[in-house]
Structure formats: structure tokens, C-alpha cells
Amino acid sequence: MEENALDKILIINGTLVTAETSVKEDIAVENGKIKDCGNLNPASHPGYRVIDASGKFILPGGFDPHVHLSLPTPAGKSCDDFRSGSLAALAGGTTYMMDFVTPRRGQSIREALRLRSAEAAESIAGCGLHVGISEWNPTVAAEIVPCIEQDGIRSFKAYLAYRESIGIGYGELHELMLIVGSAGGLVMVHCEDGEMISRLQAELLQQGKTRACYHAMSHPPEAEIRSIEKVIELSAVTNCPVYIVHTSTARGADLIAAARKSGIRVFSETCPHYLLLDDAVYDSALDDMKVMPYIVSPPIRGRSDQQRLWEGLSDGTFDVVATDHCPFNLHGQKDRGANNFTKIPNGAGSIEHRLRLLYTYGVLANKITMNQFVSLVSTRPAEIFGLGHRKGKLLPGYDADIVIWDPEYTGTISVKNHLEHCDSEIYEGFQVLGGPDTVILSGKIVNRKS
Ligand code: URP
Ligand code: ZN
Ligand code: ZN
User: Fold this and answer.
1) Ligand 3 center to residue 440 CA distance, Å?
2) DSSP 8-state assignment for residue 24
3) Helical H segments across 105-151, by residue range
4) What's 281's domain CATH number?
5) Is 9 a member of any domain?
6) Could you give the angle at which helices 194-206 and 221-238 cross, rounded to 10 degrees?
7) Between β-strands 186-190 and 126-132, what pairing exists: parallel, antiparallel or unpaired?
8) Rounded to the nearest whole angstrom, what is the distance from the C-alpha of residue 163 to the centroid of ligand 1?
């Protein structure tokens, strides 16, 4: 973090990149907001700190709408907290993130929201919260509208997997969507058929198939596909907009594309690990300790799924690339499932790497344009989650959350140098080309390389 950063900043000679355009313009920042964009003369901006961004891109700060910091699980909390996770996010160009309130069963949502808000206040970056619905009963149902109207929560998340802990069923989801839809909110859904998964897990364990690699077999593509089908159907009948998190399958992407074409309000997300890794990470020849870092739900899929997901970024099927950042240490957390794959906490980290990975393997590989990149990591998530009037664009009056992007930056991702708090790294050895030179948060410089 840079101390005593000036409040007035003039960035000259860069290329401003938004979801629509790339233009050579200067940008002035004052009092935490973007003051002006255009041809701005330093001589007429006395008192401004001038940054020469020749050869660099100016982007709206990254917006990651799906992270789990200090997520409580039976294996302990996910190992980045709001402070460490937000510092890693900022280093990677993400200035705003959204986490979740996950009420304990029996706990009031609004009480859980109060406690979680106090934790989230530790974030150095901007931070918002969605509310998870971890059980369904009349008390929970009665809390939804006050949550929207009095606490300003717009997005509610349901897990169709994890039936033994926080998951709910389709009938319960239907009722949730009726209430949220008519109150003007949005329902986010983890689409994996919980009953199918529980049955497959029990069958595998009964056959003595306890190793980490069986996680993927217990979460087959059909579990996601069936669940996406059903959720789209529910969105159509309830008229409630849905946001499908972490889509991993080609068929899931096709279903989403068709639903959107027919006018159903489905927003969708995929994550870097589904775009960049493949199911070789679950090879049964690998030692279990090598497999465990990759235990995420849904699991990482095959190459043909991966290809369709990339197409979905450029053909508009997906609105957002989010991280689902949820790291657990290999030693002491993931390895609790050494004798039973169902006990391995699900999740992995990438909050620090999302922009660099998508730029290197998306933009530079000509799979997406620079404008699509900005849309996927910043503009669309800000719009979908109700902050499109303040974030995700470079316009006068918008929050001065800005990244000066250096296309010449090179690096190698490693557990040895990442800021994320985790003793493993699923992108170990990945080369990245292009990264943040300077990160400005609410008008203050918080990271600067050059
Ligand atoms: O494996 C995952 N995705 N862990 C985080 C919780 C969730 O399902 O989003
Ligand atoms: Zn999930
Ligand atoms: Zn998640």
C-alpha cells in the first residue's frame, strides 16, 4: 500500500478501455471520483499528480462478484480472510469484490448479515455481500423482503449441492424465487443436483472408492446439466432473474444460451479454473496430495467443455468471469479428506490472478477482445449486481477505481510469490504477460510498480 497518495491524479497518454471502446484519452481523478476524461492538459491541472501511461491501458477496476473469504466449513475457514484476500485482489487489479452471508441453520439472516458485515469491514478493497439461503422455512421466507427493503441486499444465493449442510431443494428454490422475483431481487444458484451427488458419493464410498480422484465422478456433468435445466424452467415460471454461478459444462452453456435467446432472464458466470485447467488434474495415477488442491465443485471438466466455455465468453453466453475464490490449505485442511474424498473442503483461489490469466490466455490468444475482457471482469458484474451507475465504467462521476494495465508486464504464478494465503497454488508455473502497473482505489493509489 502506498502511503500519502495524492487525491488529485491526472493520467495522461494512456488508452482508455471500456466494454465498448478503446480510445486514447487522459483521465482526471479528484475526491475519489473520475472528474473528467478527454484531452486534458497537465498545465491546466495544477496540484494534480501526473502519471504518464504511454503504452499502457486504463481499465475500470476489476469487480469480482463471487468470493468466499473466511468461509466456515468443518475443515475450518477458507484461508484468506477479508484483509489478506482483498490485498491479493488489489494486487491483481480487482478493486471490488462480493462475498456471502452464510447463516447457520436456525440463525436469523439479518443477525448473520450484521456479523458478516463486521467481518467484511476488514476488507481493504471495496466489498459487498450477497445473502446465502442455507435452509428454507417460514421464518427464513419472512426475512427476505426486509433484507431487500431495509438492508439493501439484492442478491440471494441458493446451493442445490451440499444438501447435508447448506443446500436446498428445487421446491424450496421455487418458493424463494417467487418472493425474490416479486421484490425486484436476483437469485444466484450453484447448479448441481444435490440428490444425484449424495447418491453417487454414497455408492463410491461403499465400493471403497475413497480417493480424491473420485470427487469428479461423484459430481458428473449431468448433475450440473439437470440442475441448470430445472433452474431455467423455474426462472421462466416465476419471472425471477437468475444468475448461474461457476458454469463448467458445454451443455450447461448451450442451455443458458438458448434460454437467453428466448428472453428468459438468465445471467451467467464461469471461472478461470474451468477455462484454463482440465480433468487431467484428477488422474488416478497422481498422488492424492497432488489432486486435492483441485477439488472444487463443480469439478474441472474435459477439453471439449473448456472449448465451449471460451466460445461462450466471446459469443455472449457468459456475462462474467468470477473467481469463486475459496482457498483451503493442503496441509491441515484439504488433507482432512485423505481417507474420504467427501471430507475434502471444496474450493481454490485465484482472486489475485483473474485479470492476468484472462488477459494472457484470452485476449492475447485472440479468444476474446480487450473490450470483452473489460466487460467480463468489471462492467457486467457491476451492472448485474446493482452498481453499474458507479462502477465498471470510465465516466465522469464514477468511482475512481482504476487500473493502469501494463502490457509489457511478465510474471510466473507460484505459491512462492503469491499474496493469497494458501500453501498450494493451482496455477503453479503459469506464465502471465500483462498486469497491473498501478491500481487506484476510490481515488487513492494502492499499488504501483513503475
Ligand atoms: O468448490 C467450490 N466452488 N467451493 C466454494 C463454494 C461454492 O460452491 O461456490
Ligand atoms: Zn458453488
Ligand atoms: Zn462459490
Assistant:
1) 27
2) E
3) 109-120, 138-151
4) 3.20.20.140
5) no
6) 160
7) unpaired
8) 13
For the stretch 188-208, pLDDT in tens is 999 999 999 999 999 999 999
CB–CB of 136/168 below 8 Å?
A: yes
- Give the number of the atom of ligand 1 that is nearest the alpha carbon of residue 161: 8
Would the CB of 270 count as within 6 Å of ligand 1?
Answer: no
DSSP H or E run through 231: helix 221-238
Cα separation, 20 vs 234, whole angstroms = 32
Ligand 1 touching residue 190 (CB < 6 A): yes
pLDDT digits (tens, 9 = 90+) for 401-445: 999 999 999 999 999 999 999 999 999 999 999 999 999 999 999
C-alpha cell at 180: 425474490
> Is residue 98, in this structure, part of any structural domain at all?
yes
Q: Look at residue 300 and tell me whether its pLDDT is greater than 80.
A: yes
- In this prediction, residue 5 carries a pLDDT of 52
Interatomic CA distance for residues 441 and 33, integer angstroms: 10
Q: Residue 41 class from Cβ within 10 Å (0-12 exposed, 13-18 middle, 19+ buried)?
A: exposed
Assess whether the C-beta atom of 78 lies below 6 angstroms from ligand 1: no
pLDDT digits (tens, 9 = 90+) for 12-54: 999 999 999 999 999 999 999 999 999 999 999 999 999 999 9
Which structural domain range is residue 241 located in?
A: 61-384
Ligand index nearest the alpha carbon of residue 299: 1
Query: What is the number of structural domains in the chain?
Result: 1
CA 326–ligand 1 middle distance (angstroms): 7
Cα–Cα distance measured from residue 267 to residue 205, given in angstroms and rounded to the nearest whole number:
36
| Ligand 1 proximity of 350 Cβ (cutoff 6 Å) | no
Residues 6+ apart with CB under 8 A from 202: none
CB proximity list for 347: less than 8 A, separation 6 or greater: 68, 71, 78, 295, 296, 324, 325, 326, 327, 328
State the CB neighbour count (10 A cutoff) for residue 303.
9
Which residue out of 324, 333, 341, 426 has the highest number of ligand 1 atoms within 8 Å of its CB and is therefore the one to mutate? 324
Mutation pick for ligand 1 pocket among 296, 328, 341 (CB with most ligand atoms within 8 Å):
296
Query: What ligand has the least distance to the C-alpha of 158?
Result: 2
Q: What CA–CA distances, in Å, run from 70 to 77, 129, 169, 377?
A: 5, 13, 26, 23
The answer to whether residue 404 sits within a structural domain is: no
Is there a domain that residue 16 lies in? no
CA of 261 to the centre of ligand 3 (A): 26
